[in-house]
Design brief:
The structure holds two protein chains of two kinds. Chain A is mainly α. Helices cover about 75% and strands about 0% of the residues of chain A. The chains are: A mainly alpha, B mainly alpha.
Chain lengths: ~500, ~210
């Protein structure tokens, strides 16, 4: 099955030259998406810290409407989802697609203008949320005067990704390409349906909540998840230098995800004012998600097996493996949360918040960090300047997010248990959550340190691009060159 | 899977299936619900919100209240919603037909508000609580909404009856009093309008024992 992997030990000199040409063509556009995404990450982190702190110190910065919890929290969510996550995802999509199709990025100015449009739309939208113009619909809070800009920008990106695919020189399709194609086709459909039925011309009553969670779940499941999985499928075999364990498990994982994931949304409505069939169908689909999750986990694990030692050397691998493991854990946690008896307790608690961060951060964000560690040196032709900053980044984010999600999941469960007992006054329930909310602020600071370290390293790397060209050498963390090249070419 | 068109069709078909099942079908079933008229009492429910409460609802949206407060009561036997007094009956789809957007909510950092108008009908309680939740609920983590209020000098006729009654550490300096701005009034009107005491054919009220 060796031919099914992007990794090929016998890459000839001409192939290398071709890859270098593709990397160079991606340089400006991918950098633009990565850098603006990183700025959104920093802004989102500040907003997150404020929101988290306010939740156990409610009077803090409470004198102005734009600083109130409900707005800061919403601004945080939109900055990290539509700013950081989406923009970095697009950068990764473009680079992966060009590499796997073996075509240079064409008409970069088109993609660059999409990036600029996206950022303009988002700045308007976030300012709008802080000013009170939120739509009030979860995951779709951006006001309607900015969403058409975002849609136009994404349409450009999606069309261009498909154009790159259409003109591919490599006839073999790799798993990552399936996931990317799916993501760029699914997202515009989801977004336009949700905008039409929730913001532009709202459907009647409870139907809005249905459309809301069809979108809300799928924006994670059908947009971010496929991009995250595309990255894992590409970088894992690439860095360790061996093909993906099983082609058939990849196929099984992809099609079962495509079939089941998009039916999951209504598990957010368990106990809500809906006919039973709606809720039940989503619970069934959620449980079926065990198939793609386990298939993917087995596939990744058996690819990695015997190569875990390489985690010492490659920053990309560390983040990607952390992300892949988190995908399994958070997805199985999601399956559990969808089941009625579990939902009765955990629904409406901080358990859900922890779960969202497990998926969006421990899985998706970590995977994107790993991808950037691989892509940035190749498009800038400079190596990472500081090994220490990489270590700081990894340990802060890895330890930080575990300390965030594990205790908060537990705290949310206790909160739910206390809430189920009608004899416990509500303010006592609040008291149960306080230690976990405070710990969350502490972990937020740890994560913030990691983000700053990463951003500093990126800036330093970019400063280096003004210096003389140096043959990039793969950054390895442990200071020892392992037997096989840790960062494949 | 090297055949592009098949991949495309599969990708489009899978999402089309859930678009049909989770968007089109619910819209078919719930998208044209009408208010119910009780043939005995002639009461029509639900009703659109009156002006001031409707403005208050906009503030509720704009301040993001729905991120900590749900407006959905789970049926008897599933959760403690009814035992906690958050509603007299489970919520049903028809309760929401006039809501744009629907504030079902997904988090109970604070209590459910479906029935807050009946649980707390007092203007005074709401003003005091919004001005600073600590005045009525010591230990609450709800933020203060003091920016919906203004400080005014006590007039020559003595303290105004409209002023928010605040005691102890929350009282303004002598000679000053706290008045709700129109926004605070609207928000309280909205909260007072939230009730779940009307039965629907699909959601009767539990019989009194």
């Amino acid at each position: 099955m060796a031919a099914l992997s992007p990794w090929d030990s016998n890459l000839g000199q001409s192939n290398r030259a071709q890859l270098a040409e593709i990397d160079a063509s991606c340089r400006g556009s991918v950098l633009l998406f990565f850098l603006s995404g990183m700025l959104w990450l920093l802004a989102g982190t500040v907003l997150a810290l404020l929101a988290s702190y306010k939740l156990h110190a409610p009077g803090f910065l409470g004198d102005a409407a734009w600083l109130t919890f409900g707005r800061i929290r919403t601004a945080h969510l939109n900055a990290v989802i539509y700013g950081f996550s989406a923009e970095v995802a697009v950068g990764v999509i473009l680079w992966l697609m060009c590499r796997l199709c073996r075509v240079p990025l064409m008409a970069q100015s088109l993609i660059n203008s999409a990036a600029v449009l996206w950022n303009i739309g988002l700045v308007i939208g976030i300012v709008g949320i802080l000013a009170g113009d939120t739509t009030g619909v979860e995951y779709l809070e951006l006001p309607k005067y900015c969403t058409p800009i975002l849609f136009l920008s994404f349409a450009l990106i999606a069309v261009w990704t498909i154009v790159i695919f259409r003109f591919r020189r490599e006839k073999h399709l790799y798993v990552s390409q399936w996931y990317i194609l799916a993501a760029v086709l699914w997202f515009p459909w989801l977004y336009s349906t949700a905008q039409l039925l929730l913001v532009m011309d709202p459907a009647r009553g409870a139907v809005q909540a249905a459309v809301n969670w069809w979108y809300g779940h799928n924006v994670l499941g059908l947009w971010f998840t496929p991009v995250g999985l595309a990255s894992i499928y590409y970088f894992l075999p690439k860095v360790i230098g061996r093909p993906i364990h099983s082609y058939y498990l990849s196929v099984l994982g992809f099609w079962t995800l495509a079939l089941f994931y998009n039916w999951n949304g209504f598990h957010h409505l368990v106990g809500g004012p809906f006919p039973a069939w709606m809720i039940t169908i989503s619970i069934v689909a959620s449980v079926m998600m065990i198939i793609p999750v386990v298939a993917t986990a087995i596939n990744h694990h058996f690819t990695m097996i015997g190569h875990f030692g390489k985690l010492k050397y490659s920053p990309t691998l560390r983040f990607i493996v952390f992300g892949a493991m988190s995908y399994t854990v958070s997805s199985l946690q999601g399956v559990l949360s969808a089941v009625r008896w579990f939902s009765e307790t955990a629904h409406f608690t901080h358990h859900t918040v922890a779960h969202a961060h497990w998926g969006m951060y421990a899985f998706f964000t970590m995977t994107m960090f790993g991808s950037m560690y691989y892509i940035l040196p190749r498009i800038t032709q400079r190596e990472w300047p500081s090994e220490r900053l990489i270590s700081l980044h990894f340990w802060c984010t890895a330890v930080g997010i575990i300390l965030y999600v594990a205790p908060l999941s537990w705290g949310g469960w206790l909160q739910g248990k206390a809430m189920l007992d009608a004899q416990i006054p509500f303010l006592e329930v609040v008291k149960v959550t306080l230690p976990y909310l405070k710990l969350r602020t502490v972990t937020g600071v740890i994560l913030a340190v990691g983000h700053v370290a990463f951003f500093a390293n990126i800036c330093w790397l970019l400063v280096r691009t003004f210096g003389p060209y140096r043959q990039p050498e793969p950054m390895i963390l442990a200071g020892v060159q392992p037997q096989t090249a840790p960062v494949g070419k | 899977m090297n055949y592009g068109p098949l991949l495309f069709l599969g990708i489009l078909f899978t999402l089309a299936s859930s678009w049909f099942g989770l968007v089109v079908m619910p819209n078919q079933q719930l998208g044209s619900l009408q208010p119910n008229m009780d043939t005995n009492t002639g009461v029509v429910f639900p009703q659109p919100l009156p002006g001031e409460a409707a403005q208050g609802r906009e503030l509720y949206r704009s301040l993001g209240c729905n991120y900590c407060h749900t407006q959905q009561v789970r049926r008897e036997g599933f959760g403690s919603d009814i035992a906690r007094g958050w509603g007299k009956r489970g919520s049903v789809a028809r309760d929401y037909i006039y809501d744009r957007p629907v504030f079902l909510g997904s988090s109970r950092t604070g209590p459910d508000l479906t029935n807050i108008g009946e649980r707390q009908p007092s203007y005074e309680w709401h003003y005091s609580h919004l001005y600073n939740p600590q005045t009525t609920s010591k230990g609450s983590i709800m933020p203060p909404y003091a920016f919906l209020f203004e400080l005014r000098r006590v007039g020559p006729d003595g303290p105004s009856t409209n002023a928010v009654k605040l005691g102890g550490e929350f009282a303004p300096e002598p000679g000053w009093e706290v008045h709700p701005k129109p926004e605070a009034k609207q928000l309280v009107e909205y909260l007072r309008s939230l009730r779940s005491s009307v039965a629907l054919p699909e959601a009767p009220l539990p019989k009194l024992e």
